Amino acid sequence: MGKPRITTWEDLHLDCVFIIFSKLGLDDLTAVIPFVCKSWFQASSHPSLHKILDFTLLDLNSSSPLSKILSSQYSLHRFTFSGFLKLAMALSNGAADELRFSALFPPSIEVLSTASAACPSLKTLFLPRINFDDEARFLDLIPNWSDLECLEMESKPSNLGEMVKQIGANCGRFRGLKIRGSIDNADAQGIVNFLPKIESLDLSGSRMRREEALAILDGCRELKRFTVRDCVGFEVDDELQRRAAGIELFEFEGCRAEEKFRNFINHTEDLDYMLMHYGDCFELWML
């Protein structure tokens, strides 16, 4: 007896459909696939396809093609990012374990509050930044993510010490932190005291002293990856490299002392070249 012939897309085995759909982004899974046929609608709504909610590559302006398609397909009077976020989270049905926001559309504290309730199994969270006035409220959301393993932020919150304290107290599996900003002694001690088992720490592009780098190396004994690329405030000398000898990956290219950084700024006439290296920091200073 021969194998059954597949005559339509609806006849395709569900496992094959999941494999194909797993390669698609949120835009296709919400604005295109559900409207092809009934079987595709059912398949695209499966929570396993919405474990990664990545908004970083989506144009969510109200005038964008995606926004217009979504407004048309769902008969919306007005497209909003929060509405799209709620749709994506509803489709995940609590199964989402990775959530990434775009720097162009940073989430409000209300959006983050919704995410903390709708994504209790979150393991990876990428945040471009948190408004200063919302930092204290963000601390109250951390206990809802007890499975959190990795947090990435494009800018360091002013209450970093309190944040890592909350993470250390509520997220027993936490192993990875990526932030950028001015790292002082209190920040370094907070990381050492509250995240002693951290395995990956990325402080690239930060301003920090040699003392803070040494304190982290001495205090975080389980570090497997320590990244301080393009940091300003110290150069990696033999002593630093010796202290980091037990780490699997120590990345420090581009580190420079404060004086060399000032000379670089003073003698660089090509603004585009300067912004290519320090564009993100420049944006943060402007804010």
UniProtKB/TrEMBL annotation:
Source species, domain of life: Eukaryota
Q: Which residues form a coiled coil?
A: none
Write the protein's name: F-box/LRR-repeat protein
**Source organism (scientific name):** Platanthera zijinensis
